[in-house]
């Protein structure tokens, strides 16, 4: 359990719809560099492909009562893992995002081969920036994606 009382469990095929619903929630899309809604059929094809990819890890954040409250996922590229996180809109403000970021990032470094985790956060998203910084990430420059300015944050060595 983390400091917010959540635990992470590996996501499986049955979690496809949960991740889709979380990813397509309005405020999550607005905070994303890819804000377009994703049709369920497209997501299911993507998720099935990703579940078979050794460079992909996804975890569901579960609260103390056993309720799924969000996800944290990683795309591995050599010794780097890029993080993506979403918390159910009704569960925000409870520290679950911070806890999922920290627990997931620590797990990625402990399990390897990642030596650092990279987050790309929109510059106009101060809540996410603060959560990543409180989770131990350090700012490592800027990056524009899809014409949107972001901040690169790093957890682990090499940052």
TrEMBL record:
GO molecular function, one term: acyltransferase activity, transferring groups other than amino-acyl groups
PROSITE patterns listed in its UniProt record: GNAT
Top-level taxon of the source organism: Bacteria
Coiled-coil zones: none
Gene3D superfamilies for the chain: 3.40.630.30
Domain (N-acetyltransferase) ranges: 6-159
InterPro entries: Acyl_CoA_acyltransferase, GNAT_dom
PANTHER family: GNAT-FAMILY ACETYLTRANSFERASE, SPERMIDINE N(1)-ACETYLTRANSFERASE
Name of the protein this chain belongs to: GNAT family N-acetyltransferase
Native source organism of the sequence: Tectimicrobiota bacterium
């Amino acid at each position: 359990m983390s400091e917010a009382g959540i635990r992470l469990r590996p996501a499986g095929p049955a979690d496809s719809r949960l991740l889709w619903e979380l990813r397509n929630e309005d405020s999550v899309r607005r905070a994303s560099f890819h804000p377009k809604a994703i049709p369920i059929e497209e997501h299911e094809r993507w998720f099935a492909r990703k579940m078979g990819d050794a460079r992909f890890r996804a975890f569901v954040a579960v609260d103390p009562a056993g309720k799924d409250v969000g996800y944290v996922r990683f795309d591995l590229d050599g010794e780097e893992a890029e993080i993506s996180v979403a918390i159910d809109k009704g569960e925000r403000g409870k520290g679950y995002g911070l806890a999922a970021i920290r627990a997931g990032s620590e797990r990625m470094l402990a399990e390897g081969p990642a030596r650092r985790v990279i987050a790309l956060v929109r510059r106009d998203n101060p809540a996410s920036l603060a959560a990543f910084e409180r989770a131990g990430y350090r700012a490592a420059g800027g990056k524009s994606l899809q014409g949107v300015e972001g901040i690169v944050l790093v957890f682990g060595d090499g940052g």
